[in-house]
Design goal:
Length: about 200
DNA sequence: TACTAGATCGGCT
DNA sequence: GCCGATCTAGTAG
């Protein structure tokens, strides 16, 4: 049986709202990237919010720099940064110009382009069932899987070949709220959100 | 299963 | 120079 997949892109007004509101509503939405001959898509199942006005862990906390200028722009753009000398991480900018808020996409559940995702991640066939759940359960893995890198920084999600599709809101009771992962500042902010019982989140 | 270290590079002090 | 919104392979238990 084929799942029915919605086709409308989220518009600017979705992204320009408060970062915590958008973070929760991004759960369940479909991230899509269309390459020349391939199409990648996946359901967003885990995110984290970052807000430079009060959050020391946010890249915008220090004020405007060359690296974070996209995150200081209007919502609906992609902020991609490189970290640990090895990995890219993919963020959705939110709010009005100058806010400095964004949402880190931590995990997705693959839908389209799974063969290419496997190739991007492992460069070989899957060895076991466990590897299937390991394809996109982490911010670095999502970027590797979808082949998202530096050149996608600043991309407009409302216009081009990377976009996010509308989908029904996840019910509040199915949204888990925890502290964020992998940071050393503002560690107590409960700004990580994920879909309850989903097998593709990075950590329960 | 749980912890540790190494990779590796760009941004910022 | 230092450190990071990470991942993987390795070792120990």
């Amino acid at each position: 049986m084929k799942l029915k997949i919605p086709t409308a892109k989220l518009e600017r007004s979705f992204y320009t709202r408060n970062v915590l509101t958008v973070a929760k509503e991004l759960l369940g939405k479909i991230l899509v990237k269309e390459d020349n001959d391939k199409k990648f898509s996946g359901k967003i199942v885990e995110v984290e919010a970052y807000d430079g006005s009060i959050d020391e862990a946010a890249h915008t906390y220090i004020g405007l720099t060359k690296r974070n200028e996209i995150m200081f722009g209007i919502g609906g753009f992609l902020y991609v940064y490189f970290t640990y000398g090895a990995h890219y991480c993919c963020n959705v900018v939110t709010g009005k110009r100058g806010k400095g808020t964004a949402i880190l996409i931590r995990s997705v559940e693959p839908i389209d382009g799974i063969e290419a995702i496997i190739e991007n991640r492992y460069g070989r066939e899957l060895l076991n069932e466990k590897e299937k759940y390991n394809l996109t359960n982490g911010p670095g893995k999502v970027c590797k899987a979808f082949n998202i890198n530096k050149k996608h920084n600043g991309f407009d999600l409302t216009g081009g070949y990377i976009y996010i599709l509308k989908a029904p809101k996840i019910k509040n009771k199915d949204i888990m709220v925890t502290k964020r992962i992998g940071i050393n500042k503002s560690i107590d902010l409960p700004w990580r959100f994920y879909i309850r019982d989903n097998l593709y989140v990075s950590k329960k």
